[in-house]
Amino acid sequence: MADLSALADGTLPADRRAEVEARVASSPELLELLARQRRAVLATQSLAAEEVPESLHAAVVDARRRALDARRGRVRWVPRFVVAGAAAVAAAVVAAVFLSGGPGSPTVADAARLATQPPTGPAPPPAGKIGSRLAMSVEGVTFPDFARAYGWRAQGVRRGRVDGRAATVVVYAKDGRQLGYVIVGGAGLTPPVGARATVIRGVEYRTLRANGQVGVTWRRGGHTCVLIGEATRAELLKLASWPLNPPR
After folding, report:
1. Domain limit, last residue, from 77, 98, 119
2. pLDDT tens across 133-165, in order?
């Protein structure tokens, strides 16, 4: 477990790496465990720039204490992700508490990471003559056409899944920058806890970070949406609130 944790965060010594990777490759259970630990590490790194609530800080401190007690033999405690070491336990706690609605549930962070991936299909055309929507939707929720109003043009589409739920991403580009706009099928995901919130005309938008990029998440028609990429938070909020907040 200690080697697996070190492999996930990149601290495993080079002379152990080949042996551990070979063992992991031969076990579906270890592969899944490694993937979970890597997601926890990425989530922790993404939150480095965010102000952490005091309650979350206390939870992480408590997790570290319990992990140290377990290693010293005073308490028998196995966390959900079976991670080894105080730092890995803290990462799992942060990932579960801050970004998701609880361990094992599909998370907004998963959707955000999908939105940062490159497109795999052609861009959808505009819908109708108004120039505000694209000819693509997810369960009735339509993707916006930002080209005329903001200069962001649809470049391609990527389809994937967020813990079993279908999700569609439209990638937009402007002046060499890119944005990913994902809509997740099914009921809305639990929004990230403690994230900075902004309300625009009755809709709440929450800020998050994934893969080193800033994003915002909100709900449209009961579905979770995430807009993330190479833009400021203010610009993302302006785009995300379209057409509720059209340009003047």
Report:
1. 98
2. 999 999 999 999 999 899 999 999 999 998 788
